[in-house]
Each structure stands twice: as structure tokens, then as C-alpha cells.
UniProtKB/TrEMBL annotation, chain A:
It comes from Labedella endophytica. The keyword Cell membrane applies. This is Amino acid ABC transporter permease. It is found in: Cell membrane. One of its GO terms (molecular function) is L-cystine transmembrane transporter activity. InterPro entries: AA_ABC_transptr_permease_3TM, ArtM/GltK/GlnP/TcyL/YhdX-like, MetI-like, MetI-like_sf.
Automatic annotation (TrEMBL), chain B:
Keywords: ATP-binding, Cell membrane, Membrane, Nucleotide-binding, Transport. Residues 20-260 form the ABC transporter domain. One of its GO terms (molecular function) is ATP binding. It is a peripheral membrane protein. GO terms for cellular component: plasma membrane. Gene3D superfamilies: P-loop containing nucleotide triphosphate hydrolases. This is Amino acid ABC transporter ATP-binding protein. It is found in: Cell membrane. Pfam families: ABC_tran. It comes from the Bacteria.
Length: 218, 267
């Protein structure tokens, strides 16, 4: 085993994680959650056309592979003269992807809040939006934390697909070093270990967050 | 103290203007008529208890008064605020809000907001909806909490309280809205038996203070001691109404008698 290569590649891979994988995941998740919240609310709307649009969006995202979504945006759109750089393409595709999955999580969380909470909010005079914002969503947020943490961890791993549309993130750097050194097994296992470490850290963070949020809720 | 109706008659004063006058209230869920035609008069300072078997429509009456159900027939008049509603016409949000503003409700499962402290539960409506100044609202909330024996609990979360304490917070939350009338939907039905008394005694105190109240309850002793009028509902109509002494000792209707018998001698 070439320990020198393991050590010398660790730096570039870490740089790839810090400047590629992690910001890509964070940005896509932040935008994705906003999309998801809007889609979840649209899906719950009594207006048929609004819930119809949301239902269609969620269905398309969940019914097509992420790699195809990436390719449509990066390699497909240039055919109609819409040319988007690798990074924005990646963030658009990942955000839309997260939005579709997280929308269903948030919708389920909102529906899990007992009807009595809505009624108590109406009773104290709140209109629907205020009840949603002050009473329902804070409780739904707690319910959403475990499944959304899982979505985020999946997203971190999914960023590796962006190497295929030329985004310089950790896995693309691993591929480059592997091709250069001819040590494919070593580099790919090293990248795998680094992804695993990142996810271990995130899981630990998820545990702490869940314990914090459960303090007041019986 | 609520005025004694007999004294008013003797003084030959005109009867006081009702706070609420409900006529012919009707509500169906699909093919099931829950309320067929319910009349209800509520005089200021009076306590009305609604009793009856489950499914008789008593909770639906209460929820209609708070705009949580939309009746499909009947009228509601609140002379003091000049509000007149005809439920056979589509209910606008503005009208629903005016109906709702008359009253505040205490729920069977308290329905406190679990993510807010006791104080925040109480002040949420006055602050966020009514837009009253925080200092005044919080001072009033603390005074009300003290009054129902919850001194020092304002920073607690609902899950940290006993069932009886939770329900007393529910009562304070309703009082803090400064409503004209209080609605209680079986406020002790989901409590452990030893906790029922503390909630009923708070309610009796409110009645003694002159609050106008509508109470759906199975606590016959409470109805007998506190109510001015008792309405027995069955099958979506008021089968019998009167002073508690009359209803409980000499019910006119056979079904009222059977219902009371079952409650007093369950086996």
C-alpha cells in the first residue's frame, strides 16, 4: 500500500470536500428546503391548480434519476441555448431534487400536527397564515428534523454525481489523482472513507439536534 | 353574581337584553343531521349547561358559537355588538371572525401549544392577534395565572404540568382574550378523577364572578350547583330546558329521565 500517496492525496481531497462537496450540499439544502416548504404548502392548498402543480413537480423529481436531472440541465439545456455553468447547474439540480423529497417530508409533518392545534389557534383569533407560522410550522419543524437530516446526509453523498458535470468536488479530485497515479482502488476507497467520516459527523450532529428539540415535548 | 330571574320579574323590569340569541341552529355532516333546530338564549352573567348523550349535538352547538363549525341553517344575534348572522347564507370570513370574537373556548383536550411556555400560551392571542401592549398583557396574564393557582408556572412548558394544571392554563388562555362569553367543551372529561375538582372549582369561581358561560359537561353536580339553565339535547334538538332543580328532580321527558338515571347509576 502506497502510504505516501494516501497522505499526499489527503490534502487535495480535503480541499475538494471543503470547497466543493460541503458548500454544494449546504447551498443546495438551504435552497431546497425553501422550495420544499413552498411545494408542501402548495400541495396542501385547497386550490386545485396550485396543489396540482406541486403534485406534478414532486412526482417528476421523485420519479426520475438525479443523474438524468443533472444531465438535462447541464448537457441538455445548451441545445436550446440555455447554457449554465457547472456550479449553478449542480446547485439548481440538487436544490430541485431536495425540494421534491423534502416537500413530502414537510407535508407529512404539517399533517401530523393534531387538528386541535389549528382549532386552538383559530380560537385565539389567528387567521390561517398566522396559525401556520406561529403554531403549526414550529411544531412541524420538530417533527421534520429526523427525516430532513436523512435527506441532508443523502444529499452530501449525491454531490459526488456532480463530478460528472465537471464540478470540482471531492470525488472529481479523487478521479483525477487516480487517473494520474493509476491507483484507482486506493483513491476511491480513500474518498469513500472521507464521505463516511463526513456522514458520521453529521449523524452525531443529528442526534444532538433531536435531543435538544425533544426537551419540552412529551 | 348573576341576577335571580324571579327578582327581576317581581321588580317588573324589562328582561335584560340577551347577550346571544340563537334560533333554529342546524348542521349536517353529509347525510347525518347533527343539529336539527337548536334555540339558545344567553343572558349576561348566566351559566348554561348543555347535557345529553354523546352524539346529541351539544359539542357542535358550542363549536358553532366559536366559528369552528359552520352551521348550515339558523340565525345568531348578539345585540350588544349589533351582530346578526343568517347561517343559511354563505359565511364570510369577516362574519366568522366577528362571531368568534364574542367568545373564547376551553377544549376537552386542552389543546395548549406544546412549543410555547405557559405565559406564551396565554399571551399569544392578546399580543399577536389583538395587538395589545406586552407589559399590560403579561401583567394581566400573571394575575390570572396566580388566580387559578398557577403562580410560578409561567415559564413551564405544558408537558411539564399535570392534566389539571394544563386545563387551568387553558382557562386562563381563554380569559386573557377578554371575551364576552366563555365556552367549555367537556373540560374535565379527559382528566384523572382526582384532578377534576380543581378545574371545576376554578369554573365555579368564574361563574360567581359573573362570567357568562356555556358549558358542555357530564358533571351533573356542577350543572346542579352552578348552572342557571340546563339544556338537555338529544338527536340534535333541545328536548328539555329549565332550571337545574327542575330538570334534575322532575324531568318531564322520559329520555331525560333515562339519561340522568344512567349517569347517576352507571351499573
Amino acid at each position: 500500500m502506497d502510504w505516501d500517496l494516501v497522505l499526499s492525496s489527503l490534502g487535495p481531497l480535503a480541499v475538494g470536500a471543503i470547497t466543493g462537496t460541503i458548500p454544494l450540499a449546504l447551498a443546495s439544502f438551504a435552497i431546497g428546503i425553501v422550495i420544499a416548504l413552498l411545494a408542501a404548502l402548495a400541495r396542501l392548498s385547497p386550490r386545485w391548480w396550485l396543489s396540482g402543480i406541486a403534485r406534478f413537480y414532486i412526482s417528476v423529481i421523485r420519479g426520475t434519476p438525479l443523474i438524468v436531472q443533472l444531465y438535462v440541465i447541464f448537457f441538455g439545456l445548451p441545445s436550446i441555448d440555455v447554457i449554465i455553468d457547472p456550479w449553478p447547474s449542480a446547485i439548481i439540480a440538487l436544490s430541485l431534487n431536495v425540494g421534491g423529497y423534502a416537500a413530502e417530508v414537510i407535508r407529512a409533518a404539517i399533517l401530523s400536527i393534531p387538528r386541535g392545534q389549528w382549532e386552538a389557534a383559530y380560537m385565539i383569533g389567528m387567521p390561517r397564515w398566522l396559525a401556520l407560522r406561529r403554531i403549526i410550522l414550529p411544531q412541524a419543524a420538530r417533527v421534520s428534523v429526523p427525516p430532513l437530516s436523512n435527506t441532508f446526509i443523502s444529499l452530501v453523498k449525491d454531490t459526488a454525481l456532480c463530478s460528472l458535470i465537471l464540478v470540482t468536488e471531492m470525488f472529481r479530485i479523487a478521479q483525477q489523482i487516480a487517473a494520474f497515479s493509476n491507483e484507482f482502488l486506493l483513491l476511491y476507497v480513500e474518498a469513500a472513507v472521507l464521505y463516511w467520516v463526513i456522514c458520521l459527523v453529521l449523524s452525531a450532529g443529528q442526534d444532538r439536534l433531536e435531543r435538544r428539540l425533544e426537551r419540552h415535548v412529551a | 353574581m348573576s341576577p335571580d330571574p324571579d327578582e327581576l320579574v317581581e321588580a317588573t323590569e324589562p328582561p335584560p337584553e340577551p347577550m346571544l340569541e340563537v334560533r333554529g341552529l342546524a348542521k349536517s355532516f353529509g347525510d347525518t343531521a347533527v343539529l336539527r333546530s337548536v334555540d339558545l338564549d344567553l343572558l349576561p352573567g348566566r351559566v348554561v349547561c348543555l347535557i345529553g348523550p354523546s352524539g346529541s349535538g351539544k359539542t357542535t352547538v358550542l363549536r358553532s358559537l366559536n366559528g369552528l363549525e359552520t352551521p348550515d341553517g339558523g340565525t345568531l344575534r348578539a345585540p350588544l355588538t349589533g351582530l346578526e348572522v343568517d347561517f343559511s347564507e354563505p359565511l364570510t370570513n369577516a362574519t366568522r371572525n366577528r362571531v368568534r370574537d364574542l367568545s373564547a373556548m376551553v377544549f376537552q383536550q386542552h389543546n395548549l401549544f406544546p412549543h410555547l411556555t405557559v405565559l406564551e400560551n396565554v399571551t399569544e392571542g392578546p399580543l399577536r392577534v389583538q395587538g395589545r401592549p406586552r407589559a399590560e398583557v403579561e401583567e394581566e396574564a400573571h394575575a390570572l395565572l396566580d388566580r387559578v393557582g398557577l403562580h410560578g408556572k409561567s415559564g413551564a412548558f405544558p408537558a411539564e404540568l399535570s392534566g389539571g394544571q394544563q386545563q387551568r392554563v387553558g382557562i386562563v388562555r381563554a380569559l386573557a382574550l377578554r371575551p364576552q362569553l366563555l365556552l367549555f367543551d367537556e373540560p374535565t372529561s379527559s382528566l384523572d378523577p382526582e384532578l377534576v375538582g380543581e378545574v371545576l372549582s376554578v369554573m365555579k369561581g368564574l361563574a360567581d364572578d359573573g362570567w357568562t358561560m356555556v358549558v358542555v359537561t357530564h358533571e351533573l353536580a356542577f350543572a346542579r350547583d352552578v348552572a342557571d339553565d340546563v339544556l338537555f339535547l338529544d338527536g340534535g334538538v333541545v328536548l328539555e330546558r329549565g332550571a337545574p332543580a327542575d330538570i334534575f328532580t322532575a324531568p318531564r321527558e322520559e329520555r331525560t329521565r333515562r339519561f340522568l338515571d344512567r349517569l347517576m347509576r352507571p351499573f
